[in-house]
Design a protein that fits this description.
Shape: globular
Order of helices and strands: EEHEHEEEEHEEHEEHHEEHEHEEHE
Distance between the termini: 11 Å
Number of domains: 2
Number of helices: 9
Number of strands: 17
Strand content: 15-25%
CATH architecture of the largest domain: 3-Layer(aba) Sandwich
Largest sheet: 9 strands, mixed
Helix content: 25-40%
Strand order of the largest sheet: 8-9-5-4-3-2-14-15-16
Radius of gyration: 19 Å
CATH superfamily of the largest domain: HAD superfamily/HAD-like
């Protein structure tokens, strides 16, 4: 167990688990292309747990990236909560969740791992802002050719709603963050002012203290509200207890909105300031979850839940 966590002495039974994806369930350096999958031994534990309690995903990734990788999940919440997918069945097996699909009037979609019912954030300006985001993306690529732009689409209508400006592939990305990232932010804001009206400005920029990328959205994206949406979809009551797992400061709002929160360190180059109850190294996560399941999901204190 890593040092520096906010220790909390708690005894409770976990009734749902929600996790970030990249950097939490798979190491940060393996999230590019086909490598961005959960290690097989950890995925096996998650599938086993999902047969007993709901396991959900709350990610900044879009559904196109996550589909086929998180079949164990009861609810897949993408784009930090702007789009959500309720899994009706997985490989022919009904999940043990407590949601009512009809209550939310969600749109039926077919994913790689089964049938989902999807809903998403609606905003009259998103279509226009999506076009502006493309121009911002082009301006960045033209000016900063050593970064990679990863586009994020709303699955229900294939609308571009976010981009990630990624430079984790650079050998000295820590220097790039200090010296170059501020100029990228200035370019985003100046391009925004040049080509948009006042009413369509205020693109949401999410910077990270340690991580080598920047997220830009056409809407405000914050994981605390995404976690609350998952709670409503699962119909969690006052007696239910939710465990949240995350790996970056963007997870802090979700840490604070959960009953038990655990920060995951998967990259030793990062020194993330977690607002979580506890912190684990990535290699401690699988034995922790396995041990939690073996104890009927009763969480007492962290040292009792680590093998």
């Amino acid at each position: 167990m890593a040092n520096g966590e906010r220790i909390t002495r708690i005894f409770m039974k976990i009734t749902a688990i929600v996790s970030d994806y990249d950097g939490t369930l798979c190491p940060t350096d393996s999230t590019n292309g086909s490598k961005g999958r959960i290690p097989e031994d950890l995925e096996t534990v998650l599938w086993s747990i999902s047969k007993v309690v709901p396991v959900c995903i709350l990610s900044s990734k879009d559904f196109k990236f996550l589909d086929g990788k998180v079949g164990f999940s009861s609810v897949v919440t993408c784009l930090n909560g702007a789009e959500y997918f309720v899994c009706k069945n997985t490989n022919g097996q009904s999940n043990t969740t407590k949601y009512s699909v009809d209550t939310y009037g969600l749109k039926k979609v077919i994913g790689t791992c089964g049938t989902y019912y999807a809903g998403s954030l609606t905003n009259g300006n998103l279509e226009e802002k999506s076009l502006v985001l493309r121009k911002i993306s082009k301006a960045i690529v033209d000016r900063f050719q050593d970064v990679t732009i990863k586009e994020k689409y709303r699955y229900t209508d294939n609308l571009l709603v976010g981009i990630t400006i990624d430079y984790r592939h650079l050998k000295k990305w820590d220097q790039y963050k200090t010296n170059i990232e501020p100029y990228i932010i200035k370019l985003i804001r100046s391009t925004e002012r040049e080509i948009t009206s006042q009413s369509n400005r205020n693109f949401y920029i999410q910077q990270f203290l340690d991580h080598p990328f920047i997220d830009v959205y056409t809407f405000e994206a914050e994981k605390g509200s995404g976690l609350k949406k998952i709670k409503r979809l699962l119909k969690l009551g006052s007696n239910d207890r939710l465990l949240y797992l995350g790996d970056s400061e963007s997870d802090n709002p979700a840490f604070l909105a959960s009953d038990i929160s655990i920060g995951i360190r998967s990259d030793r180059r990062l020194n993330v300031k977690f607002d979580s109850n506890y912190v684990l190294e990535f290699n401690e996560l699988r034995p922790f979850l396995k041990n939690l399941q073996e104890h009927d999901f009763v969480f007492s204190k962290m040292e009792n839940n680590i093998i």
